[in-house]
Amino acid sequence: MALGVCKAWRAVIDAHRLLRVDLLPFSLGGIFINFNGQVFSEYFFEPSTTPTISLMSNYVPHSTRSGRRNVESHCNGLLLLSGNYVVNPATRWWAQFPTPLRPESSNKFSYRNYLVFDPILSPHYEVFSVPYISYHGLTEESEWPPSSCTLQVFSSSTGGWEDRLFVRDGEDAEMVSDMFLRSAVYYRRALYVRYYTPNIVLRISLLDGKYRAIKPPSDTQINEILSLGKSKDGVYLASVGSEILRIWVLVESCGQTEWLPKYRADLKWKLREKLRSSWVLQDVNYYNEYNGLAIDKEEAEMEARAENDHGPFLFLGFHPFEEVVFLSRSLRWGVAYHLTSSKLQYLGYQYPTGYNYFIAQCEDITDAFPYTPCSM
């Protein structure tokens, strides 16, 4: 299928000499998954249709057993790893950026970094350091988001951090005593960041220097776990509770934002329609961290496979180009739910070798990132 590129995009591409459209991130490669307590993020993919990427542990600097290299953010083929590393797994390119200097007034905040990379517009990337309020940060309620906020932004084009002022647009802020950051997506020159308590999404516009707090869908509960992502029609939210999957899409028009219900499915009834695939886990932690320890890999895998796979679903992410969501079943099985056909597809076994031997009762998936390779 031919890809059409509008004249404005062609002009931008030509201006930046980004003529190799075939190298841009237009396909899904796999999913990077952070298992609690693991040193490296695991890569879950389909080897028959997706080129195998090199283990990042082979070329990204790390200190064995102490220096974690988990994926913290993904944007159009680039990964941001813990330790201030930006990596392109498709080309084995990596770079490290410095930690910003914080003003004394920022001591009451914690920070999380998010990556912004748009190869259509520029070969350079930016890292946004976004503040949040932790339990130890405040003893009293505070206005959030404030009327204006200065964010620290690292640019690869200058090699340094700069302060950028953003002004609140839209409704007034709420009074909160704690706010925790979770996932973020970049879409149409804006960074959408999801806070966990309360469930709001902060839309940070890179075009006009404004940001807006977007309230959750009206039919959600206060403590409902919502997952933010990007897919075929833009910015999405998902909720997987009691095996009920609900999907909303964000509609933005004339300065107004609204979450519209898009899909709802009872997953437990879909298990009768299992389709099988052959995705595999790269198992980087076993070969880098556990190998050589007192563990029988075959025996450990057989025990883990024999365990009950009828536990809860965890949300892994949205397919970036198709109406598909990715789920984890009991941490053991990767699952794809096709929204338009209502088919549930078991992708493959995704449980890391030896994980239950060394993590005991702390097994969990803390983050997951659908990955779109970029060969630039």
Describe it for me?
The chain is mostly beta strands and 376 residues long. The protein has one domain (7-371): Neuraminidase (6 Propeller). Helix content is 9%, strand content 43%. It is built from five helices and 27 strands. The strands form six sheets. It has an eight-stranded mixed sheet with strand order 7-8-10-11-16-15-14-13, with no helix packed on it. Strands 21-26-25-24-23 form a five-stranded mixed sheet, with no helix packed on it. The model is unreliable at 1-5 and 12-19 (pLDDT under 50).
Keywords:
8-stranded mixed β-sheet; single chain; 5-stranded mixed β-sheet; mainly beta; Neuraminidase; 376 residues; disordered N terminus
What is the compact description of this entry?
This is F-box protein. The protein has 376 residues and is mainly β. It is 9% helix and 43% strand.
Strand and helix map with partners:
Layout: H1 7-15, E1 30-35, E2 42-45, E3 71-75, E4 78-81, E5 85-88, E6 93-96, E7 109-117, E8 125-133, E9 142-144, E10 148-155, E11 160-168, E12 174-176, E13 181-186, E14 190-195, E15 200-205, E16 210-214, E17 227-231, E18 234-241, E19 244-253, E20 256-266, H2 267-270, E21 275-276, E22 280-281, H3 284-290, H4 297-306, E23 313-318, E24 324-329, E25 333-338, E26 343-349, H5 355-359, E27 365-371
Parallel strand pairs: 11-16, 21-26
Antiparallel strand pairs: 1-2, 1-27, 2-22, 3-4, 4-5, 5-6, 7-8, 8-10, 9-12, 10-11, 13-14, 14-15, 15-16, 17-18, 18-19, 19-20, 23-24, 24-25, 25-26
Strand content: 35-45%
Gross morphology: globular
Oligomer: single chain
- Quickly give the CATH architecture: 6 Propeller
Under CATH, the topology is which?
A: Neuraminidase
Number of domains: 1
Q: What would you call the structural class?
A: mainly beta
Q: Mean pLDDT, rounded to whole units?
A: 83
Poorly predicted sequence stretches spanning 5 or more consecutive residues:
1-5, 12-19
Please report the number of helical segments. 5
CATH class: Mainly Beta
Strands ordered across the widest β-sheet = 7-8-10-11-16-15-14-13
Q: How would a crystallographer describe the biggest sheet?
A: 8 strands, mixed
User: How many strands?
Assistant: 27
Q: Share of helix among residues? A: under 10%
Organism: Eleusine coracana subsp. coracana
Protein name: F-box protein
